[in-house]
Design goal:
By secondary structure, this protein is mostly helical. Helix content is about 75%, strand content about 0%. It has ten helices and no strands. Helix 3 runs parallel beside helix 10. The radius of gyration is 19 Å and the shape is globular. It comes from Nonomuraea purpurea. It is an enzyme of class 2 (transferase).
Length: about 240
Amino acid sequence: MKGVTMLASVWRFVIVSVGMSGLRLDGSHRMARTALFVGVLAVYYLAGPLAVTPSVACWYAGAVWILYYGGLSLVLGGPGRRLLIDRFGEARALTIYEIGLGVLFCNQGFAQAVIIYAFGDSFPSAVPLWASFLAGGALMAVGLTCKTWAACTTGLDTYYCHDMFRGSATPGDLVISGPYRYLRNPMYSVGNLHAYGWALWSRSLEGLACAALFQLGIYAFYHLYERPFIRRVYSVAAAH
C-alpha cells in the first residue's frame, strides 16, 4: 500500500512539473495538447537558435511579455473570458484558454533562453566563475523547489487560474497550507528565483534583466487583477 501511495505521489509530482512548463497531462484532450507542445518544442530546438540575434531575441522576449501579461489581463481581467464562454461554452472556452496559456508558459522560459543565448557571457571578468555558478545553482534549486511545492499544494487548476476564468470559487479553494503558511505569493516571489539563478549560472546580465522584467509583469498582474479577485470572491464565499 505504501508503494502504491509513493508511486501516486511521484506521478503527481511529474504531472505538476510538466504542467508548470505548459503541458497538462491530467485533463481532457491530452493527445492534442501533447502534439501541440511537442511541435512547439521541435520548432524552438531545431530552428530557433539558428535565427537568434540580439535584435531578434529582444523582439521575441518583448512579444512574449506583451502576449503573456497582456493576454492574461485581457482574458481574466477584461472581456476576454466572457467572449470565449459566450462563443464556445465554458468547458471548451476553458480548454482553449488553458492551451493558449500553456503555450505562453513554454514561451516564457524560452524567452530568457534566447536572451541568454543571443547575448552570451556578459558578466564583468572580476566576477569569478565559481561565484556565479554557486549562486546561480543555489537560486535555481531554491526557486524550483518553492515553485513546485506551491504548485503541488494548490494544484494545476489554481496554477492555470481556473477560478479567475470561471469568475467564482468555493471556500475550500483558498490555500493556506504548504509554502502559503509562510509566504503570500511563493510562486511569484521565491518561486521566481530560479530565473535569476539561471542568468547567474549563465553569467548573463541581460538574462537577469529578462528575469526581472517577467517578475515585474506577474506582480503587476497580481496587484491589478488577481488580488482584487481573491479579495472579492473569497470574502463573499467566506460570508456564506
